[in-house]
Design brief:
The protein has one helix and 38 strands. By secondary structure, the chain is mainly beta. It has two domains: about 300 residues, Tachylectin-2, Chain A (5 Propeller), CATH 2.115.10.20; about 210 residues, Jelly Rolls (Sandwich). The strands form eight sheets. Strands 4-25-28-37-30-31-32-33 form an eight-stranded antiparallel β-sheet, with no helix packed on it. Strand 12 and strand 13 form a beta hairpin. The longest helix has 4 residues. The protein is globular, with a radius of gyration of 23 Å.
Length: about 550
């Protein structure tokens, strides 16, 4: 079979849940605070994947205003019972400290495109919920159990309870069926049945560099569960030089011919600090059954290249993407937290995008930031903005963004006297205060009227900004502004105050703020994302 190079879903695509329906494969991944919720990709050959839907796309299903960074939608589980698709997800409202607020919901749909139902609330006892459809028609709900006392562990085990879809609630007894191994932090449960065995696949070790997939089995769904002879069927924790790190949180699928595969999250660190700018990505591994146990081929360390049925076409991945907005917002783009899109952006028939200035960049409630994932280690991005600020509290432009504590933002703004200027607003690992870097880079005065072309170039960890005024030409005539920044801080490893505290990935896009509260609009003509395959320079750097 052909070889595919991991990851199969590059860029921020974490916590994969996979299901096969006939000859179609679907992977659901976490979206955290980015809206709409849950990305679902489709494939027929395990090599080529296309984003087909984000099902949590209305207020009744998901409203994340106020959710902190790296909260929101965690670890969805996508399944099919022979008639309908089922999607289980958590909308995390708090993750830091001893307490975690983790309401869990279920939605369903007759097809992957929908219509997806309003959510059924299930419980809040922990996160990473999963739904298993047994052969006798019963549905079983599992999630990790959170214990704020840490007696003896805060991740207290995996709990099982029957779900009654007619009643829309959990019924019957609840039991803690698996407490994990000494690796600790047991989460991400998925149940399966094969040859009379129930299998429980979990994630352990936290989602950083000690992550792993742990497999256990039992003859009865209630247990007791015995642990796999190798304990962790997939992990990079003992292989610090493996190309794929942070490997864990997986799910199992079989081809129509019965060949098993494991999809899992992974990270590709760069720099000596081992920073994963592209976030937690989705990879795939060949597997096989032996003595009714699943093993990863050449495991437990994940392989960079894997045999799959299909041959991947990478042409679109490396192609320049030029976005205009006459047909709405392209599916590559997302925004933050709010279901009320009309308050933050509007697409126009002339192909332009209008953002309405709301709260400052980094707000956990309502900010106008429309962005796409960074999916390459090196790329260029550019846009043209038309914006007429009157003071320093109104600013719009081009942003490379991870979270409220980590971003680089080239803005068109104005000084107190009304003079328009270009000003770089940057925040580099500023947790917990969220302050801008001081002193700010020297501003550049520009005319009070006219469009401005804004661009950035990332080459590995080096980030540079550029600009040109209306009528000044294109390409090499862009002018540098500001210093060379360290783009590697747009990573999980720098996004918070702890190694396990940040879970998303770098984005790049257009933003507009008006902290005067007057919703001053900014209009963007287009947006370009241009991969740089060989670290060559597009702009004059």
């Amino acid at each position: 079979m052909p070889l595919v190079r991991n990851p199969i879903l590059p860029g921020f695509n974490a916590d994969p849940s996979i299901v096969r329906v006939g000859s179609d494969y679907y992977i659901a991944t976490s979206t955290f605070e980015w809206y709409p919720g849950v990305q679902i990709h489709h494939s027929t050959d395990l090599a080529n994947w296309e984003l087909v839907t984000r099902p949590l796309n209305r207020k009744a299903q998901l409203d994340m205003r106020g959710d902190p960074d790296s909260c929101g939608v965690w670890a969805p589980c996508l399944s099919h019972d022979g008639e309908r698709f089922w999607l289980v997800y958590t909308d995390v409202k708090r993750k830091d400290g001893s307490f975690k607020d983790t309401p869990n919901y279920i939605v369903s749909a007759p097809t992957i495109e929908g219509p997806w139902s309003d959510p059924v609330y299930v419980n809040s006892s922990g996160f990473d919920p999963s739904l298993f459809h047994d052969e006798d028609g019963k549905k079983w709900f599992v999630n990790m159990l959170q214990d704020h006392r840490s007696r003896p562990r805060s991740f207290a085990g995996i709990v099982l309870q029957e779900f009654d879809p007619s009643a829309g609630k959990l019924v019957g007894p609840r039991k803690n069926i698996f407490q994990g191994t000494e690796l600790d932090l047991v989460e991400g449960p998925h149940l399966y049945k094969r040859n009379g065995w129930y299998y429980l696949l979990t994630a352990e070790g936290g989602t950083a560099y000690h992550h792993g997939c742990t497999l256990a089995r039992a003859r009865d769904i209630w247990g007791p569960y015995e642990v796999h002879p190798e304990k962790h069927i997939l992990t990079s924790k003992d292989a610090p030089f493996a190309a794929l790190q942070r490997a864990g949180h997986g799910d199992i699928v079989e081809t129509p011919e019965g060949k098993p595969y494991l999809v899992h999250l992974t990270g590709r660190p760069t720099t000596q600090e081992r920073r994963c700018v592209l976030g937690r990505e989705t990879a795939i591994q060949e597997a096989f059954w032996k003595d009714d146990w699943l093993y990863v081929k050449n495991g437990p360390v994940p392989s960079l290249q894997v045999e799959v049925p299909g041959v991947r076409d990478d042409s679109r991945y490396w192609a320049e993407q030029r976005y205009t907005f006459e047909n709405g917002l392209h599916k590559d783009f997302q925004w933050l937290r709010t279901p009320e899109t009309e308050r933050i952006f509007a697409t126009r028939k002339d192909g332009k995008l209008t953002l309405f200035g709301r709260e400052a960049i980094g707000s956990w409630f309502e900010q106008a930031l429309v962005a796409r994932r960074q999916t390459h280690f090196s790329y260029d991005a550019e846009t043209v903005v038309d914006f007429s600020p009157t003071d320093e509290r109104q600013f719009a432009g081009l942003a490379a963004y991870y979270c409220r504590y980590n971003f680089f933002y080239l803005t068109v703004t104005a000084h107190a006297d009304g003079q328009r200027e270009l000003l770089l607003l940057t925040s580099e690992k500023s947790w917990p205060d969220g302050n801008l870097n001081k002193p700010l880079a020297e501003p550049v005065q520009i005319p009070n009227e006219g469009k401005v072309r804004l661009a950035l170039s990332i080459r590995g960890r080096e980030l540079r900004f550029f600009y040109a005024l209306e009528g000044e030409g294109k390409g090499k005539e862009l002018k540098r502004i500001g210093p060379v920044y360290d783009a590697s801080i747009l990573s999980d490893e720098c996004g918070g105050h702890q190694a396990h505290g940040s879970f998303t990935g770098a984005f790049v896009g257009m933003a507009c703020s008006d902290v005067n509260g007057t919703a001053l609009p900014a209009t963007f003509d287009y947006f370009i994302y241009r991969p740089a395959q060989h670290h060559t320079d597009r702009y004059d750097v």
